[in-house]
Design goal:
118 residues; alpha/beta; 5-stranded parallel beta sheet; 42% helix
Amino acid sequence: MPKKVMLVDDDRTLTSLIKTLLELDGYDAVIVSLATQVLPRARAEHPDAIVMDVHLADGDGLGVLRELRASPDLQALPVIMASGMDLEDQCREAGASDFILKPYPPDHLTTAIQKALS
């Protein structure tokens, strides 16, 4: 069964492109565009990893990350945070498994996902 990756970003063009790239790499990709949907969708979809933007239209990715880490059923889920600003330290402090700086080449994302899943 293919590994499932949840993409959390409110940029529809970007998520559509990344979803296609992930599917070409053999992953199932689920797109979530709202911070408020992340926890319920993670519980429903059971992703193997999450790639989440720090800045979301309806909330803060770091806040969502802290909620994930505080949830016993989701705390071990690998979460790769992404941002156009270098917020790696803040993301790691909040519990991120990894951080990638936008814009990133697609192979950086696939490498980060493979690392998170291993």
